[in-house]
Amino acid sequence: MIAEAFVYLMSLAEAPPGFRRNLGEAVGLWARGQRQANAWVPHVANTRGLIDTTIDDIGSRRTVAVLGAGPLFDVPLEALARTFRTVLLVDHAHLWPARRRTRRYANVRRVWRDLSTAAAADPLGFLGATPDLDWVVSVNLLSQLARVAPEGRERHEVDAHLDALAALDCRATLVTDLDYRIVGRGGEVREEQDLMHGRAMPAPDLGWKWEVAPFGEEAPDTRRVHRVGAWLDWRRAAIRIPA
Known about the structure:
It is a single chain. The protein is an alpha/beta fold. It has one domain (2-238): 3-Layer(aba) Sandwich (Rossmann fold). It is 33% helix and 25% strand. Strands 1, 2, 3, 4, 5, 6, 7 and 8 form an 8-stranded mixed β-sheet that branches. Helix 1 (2-12) packs across helix 2. The protein is globular, with a radius of gyration of 18 Å.
């Protein structure tokens, strides 16, 4: 709790007033990532590796925007900063540990922005006005947008984000958790949820399991496991969405 309070206070100092309400939840996510660092290793490695290797497919490397950059657990910041002229880390909360990691790179900018449709009718519209944008990466963001949407608007949030990514003029890479299961010690499924809220998704280029909450994190006798999908080129993949 001392570490969390310290990170919160250090982050509060530079957070714009309109975004300070997001810091508490962001610090909670950061703290979980610290506690479950070992359990999250496969997910973090898969996400970083996917982004890192996709850099080779991007012909022009002027500006990349990472949507949902968060605490940077799953973002290969060093590779992006080394390769692109400008790296934009976009989120509604940027914590002090991430600031420490980014301040050595003069070409990395942290952008404070709420990417939900509750904040703007076209929350990704700013990307169209971003100069020299060659690549957009949406990283473990989509299900979070749906989670905080007003009741009954979850599917709208999913559709808005995916459709906006598909409409971009540049390459868009998508990494998102698709569903989760809460599993007991005997292997029985106690709860499951579709995090896409009925949106049909094409087969991912890569997929894996993410043990978000091992036994003891949320309850002593259950663990929560998410299924993650990744699409290297979402616009091309969206054409394959089943009817």
